[in-house]
Amino acid sequence: MPEFHRIEELPQRVGGETVVVRGWVMTTRSSGKIAFVALRDGTGYLQAVLSKKDVSAAAWDAFGKLTQETSVEVTGTVRADARAPGGVELTASDLVILGPSVDFPITPKEHGTAFLFEHRHLWLRSRRQVAIARVRHEVIQAIRDFFYERHFVLVDTPILTGSIGEAAGHLFAVEYFDLGTAYLAQTGQLYVEAAAAALGKVYCFGPTFRAEKSKTRRHLTEFWMVEPEVAWNDSDANMRLQEEFVCYIVARCLERRNTELAELERDTAPLERVRPPFPRISYTDAVAKLTALGSDMAWGRDLGGDEETLLARQYDRPVMVFNYPRAVKAFYMKENPADRRTVLNNDMLAPEGYGEIIGGSQREDDYDRLLARIREEQLPEEAYGWYLDLRKYGTFVHSGFGLGVERTVAWICGIPHIREAIAFPRTLYKLWP
Ligand code: 4AD
Ligand code: MG
């Protein structure tokens, strides 16, 4: 294949040199003598200009056959044009069709959400979806860089697991040879706890699965979660780490993905305010605050989506709600010695109605209390022998949290529903494409 250039490289190629670009046609228009092709190749957007008198009859003829999403190869020279995307335009000397495209289903007119998701494999090509994908990529790279710079070790945890990580009611089960039932991981946490005793500061990052029949705009059945776990961090240090982490991710997107955020028409002012310190409020105070705001929230219940939104609206940056009732949280959270009805945990609620983006806690490090909790929750004790061992052989104060990638991406992009924050979402209703 002859050499060609990606659109992102073209600003460095302004001048006489001939370049070849391959991409897909977005739109065309022509005045009879001059023709314009708007192209994209994934790395950028480009307008190619053909003038009838300067190109071959074959090239002019090919122009006439272009339809939306035809793949093409365009040869020409790069000209600076301040008004053009990327600051350049291509003066074409040749155009060849590589792959025709007949009746591309997604036209510039408005389509319904159901239709678009049925065509998700094609919808991914739209400017908006490309922008979201690039923000997601930046978020993920920022996550990895944050932990790498702070000397955390990545530990990959299993997806097929024997022990239940979060809520027994929300498991996907698969038959596992002669060993009975395996579950798709709801979390890697129990395993990174083991790894934290080996490596000190660790994290896992991968897909997690929840068979929740939730139809909200915040729930997927398969989502990506990053879970750091730190030996000797208490709940307070855990919250400080979360704050630093979220500020880092948001700052990275503002710095490196401003073009995409502009494409998404994201008002970046609320993101610019994401700086430490984040407000903190205890669950008990949050209930009082919600009640004062007219909510019928009662002490003892978990915060629902509406309560989270109402509470978060009182602040101009993410808020951390700490020390929830033990009864509404997972078995592994450490009991609060100052108030045994609560645990040493926290959720982080994003502003602008995006809800919980982080759930974290200090872990129960006392063998007997952890065993009592496992029994209380009627979890299969034999599956947790290895987990209890961590409290038997040099138990240690440790904390960690999980940040949901899609909720974070949806918030940063300012998109209403998290199903657009992942290329191929899985929900109660979506298994294809
Ligand atoms: O609060 P969760 O369930 O916490 C855990 O799984 C802990 N094991 C984390 C830890 O301490 N290591 O989930 C953490 C985050 C939520 O705050 C949310 O951002 C995301 O994961 N999340 C979901 N995202 C999309 N769809 C769902 N169904 C989600 N459930 C949780
Ligand atoms: Mg949670």
Please characterize this protein's 3D structure.
This protein is α+β, with helices and mostly antiparallel strands and 433 residues long. It starts with 17 loop residues before the first strand and ends in a 20-residue tail after the last helix. An 8-stranded mixed beta sheet has the order 6-10-11-16-15-14-13-12, with helices on both faces. Strands 1-2-3-5-4 form a 5-stranded mixed barrel. Strands 7-9-8 form a 3-stranded antiparallel beta sheet, with no helix packed on it. The longest helix has 23 residues, at 127-149. The protein folds into 2 domains: 7-99, OB fold (Dihydrolipoamide Acetyltransferase, E2P), CATH 2.40.50; 120-421, Bira Bifunctional Protein, Domain 2 (BirA Bifunctional Protein, domain 2). It has helices at residues 57-64, 113-118, 120-123, 127-149, 189-199, 235-256, 258-263, 269-272, 283-292, 305-312, 367-376, 385-392, 405-413, and strands spanning 18-30, 34-40, 45-51, 71-80, 88-99, 153-154, 160-161, 173-175, 181-184, 201-209, 222-231, 280-282, 319-322, 345-350, 355-362, 398-404. It binds 4-amino-1,4-dioxobutan-2-aminium adenosine-5'-monophosphate (4AD) and magnesium ion (MG). Magnesium ion binds at residues 347, 356, 359.
